[in-house]
Design a protein that fits this description.
This protein is α+β, with helices and mostly antiparallel strands. The protein is about 15% helix and about 30% strand. Strands 1, 2, 3, 4, 5, 6 and 7 form a seven-stranded mixed beta sheet that branches. Strand 3 and strand 4 form a beta hairpin. It is globular and about 35 Å long.
Length: about 120
């Protein structure tokens, strides 16, 4: 993803698939625990108002929208883990497999990848 974009500025942006079909609206951005970099976005889809997790790399921000280089059906079939919760390493692994992404190499001398967390704390309620 473009590194000059504040991840919080993605929330509320429209998201589109590789063919320009609207997927929904970015609901939450998740940061990698190890690097603090934006890694995943939860996109609120119109289908039963569920969230589909999408990778922010290789997605791009263009024309004030998030452009996701995957087909709409693949995105809508992505695992839904609920927003506002920490993504476990197992959940992240499911997402990597779902999108056919290569796993990032572990940092030398560190524990296994701990997962990803929401950029903003969940609202109390």
């Amino acid at each position: 993803m473009q590194t000059d974009i504040d991840p919080r500025s993605l929330i509320g942006r429209k998201a589109f698939d590789r063919n320009g079909a609207k997927i929904g609206t970015v609901d939450e951005v998740y940061l990698d625990d190890a690097t603090g970099e934006p890694e995943w976005a939860a996109v609120r889809t119109g289908l039963f108002s569920r969230d589909a997790f999408v990778p922010l790399e290789p997605s791009r921000v263009e024309d004030d929208a998030l452009r996701i280089p995957y087909d709409r059906e693949l995105i809508k079939d992505a695992p839904d883990f609920g927003v506002g919760r920490h993504l476990s390493p197992e959940q992240e692994l499911q997402l990597y497999h779902h999108y056919g992404l290569d796993l990032p190499p572990p940092d030398p001398g560190t524990a296994p990848r701990p997962g990803a967390q929401p950029d903003t704390p969940p609202a109390s309620g």
